[in-house]
Amino acid sequence: MFQSIDQLRERFVEARYLVDDTTLKHVLLASRLKKPLLIEGPPGVGKTEMARVSASAANAPLIRLQCYEGITEEKAIGKFDEALQRLYLSLRDPAQPADWNDLKAQLHTIEFFSAGPVLASILTAEPSVLLIDEIDKVSEGFEALILEILSEWQVSVPKLGTVRARSIPLVVMTSNATRRLGDPLRRRSLYLRFENPGMELERRILRLKSGQHSARLRTELAGLAKALRAYSLEKPPSISEILDVAEGLRILEVEELSPDLRDVLLPLIAKTHPDRKRMLLREGFEFLVANARQHAAELGPEERDGLLASTAASA
Predict the structure, then answer these.
(1) Would you tell me how many other CB atoms lie within 10 Å of the CB of residue 3?
(2) What percent of the chain has pLDDT over 90?
(3) Parallel, antiparallel, or unpaired: how do β-strands 37-40 and 190-193 relate?
(4) CATH of range 5-193; options 2.60.40.1930, 3.40.50.2300, 3.40.50.300, 3.40.190.10
(5) What does the alpha-carbon distance between residue 191 and residue 207 come to, in Å, rounded to a whole number?
């Protein structure tokens, strides 16, 4: 799937996704060892994007299973297409005698099976990337089902039999850690922990994703992110939400953070009623802006680095 770490690094740069070399090596190892990547961390830190970028880097299809409470085996693996089976029966020549056992066998082949994401990912001619998103939302029983498939790379379906993999996908499982996943799944996976970035990395992400802003504003926004995450909010802003703030300021043609932006920015950064009430306090947002500027002063000016230079050249 990936020829070398250098090729992988180049592909990630082209996809405009900043990640350190250690994480790139984990992606390479997962693809070579045929082991799933289990990425845990708070929402909005780039877990799902890692799967998308990996698929783009491998020039492979991305197949997604979105998990939720009560998800069924049928949703992941698939089911027989009854409409297609009925159509097949209706098109048979009624004049020809039918052997019921033979006909039943014909109707329960892979041609009449509508594959779900997990089965589809092992039936592709070339390896794909299978994203199992928010796996912490499923039951322990469903987790065991996924584990069995990822361990044996085959699926046993009633009436269909055992379907063996034509190709082995790169599997990326994401978790927001709302439930502790079982040790068997963890043991068979390469475990990564994603956190909100530090100020320097956040500023580099802002530069990469919203380069229209001045260096000063990008630094202030990185400082604002740090200030907000230290403000004991119910829902601290993620990377994606800070990027939304940057885009909002670009649209409004604003190049400097100021307390009078509070009401405009509230829908972008306050996502619960208690958080909104805190920022509506007379000095709440003023305090955050002051902290953002202090953090920005401590961070200092931007330095142009090779990764961003090469990314800008390829953009």
Answers:
(1) 8
(2) 70
(3) parallel
(4) 3.40.50.300
(5) 29
Annotate 250-261 with b (16+ C-beta within 10 A) or e (fewer): eeeeeeebeeeb
Contact 68, 134 (CB under 8 A): yes
Listed residue (213, 273, 210, 279) closest to 239, CA to CA: 210
Residue 100 has pLDDT above 90, yes or no: no
At 267 the pLDDT is 94
Closest CA to 217 of 269, 258, 259, 260: 258
Tell me the domain boundaries of the chain: 5-193, 199-314
Question: Do residues 30 and 1 lie in contact, with contact meaning Cβ atoms separated by under 8 Å?
Answer: no
Query: What's the CA gap between 135 and 36, in Å, rounded?
Result: 12
Which helix (H) or strand (E) covers residue 228, if one does?
helix 215-229
Q: What six digits make up the tokens of 47?
A: 């877990």
How far apart are alpha carbons 237 and 12 in whole angstroms? 24
The CA-atom distances, in angstroms, between 16 and each of 62, 97, 199, 240, 279 are 18, 62, 18, 14, 33
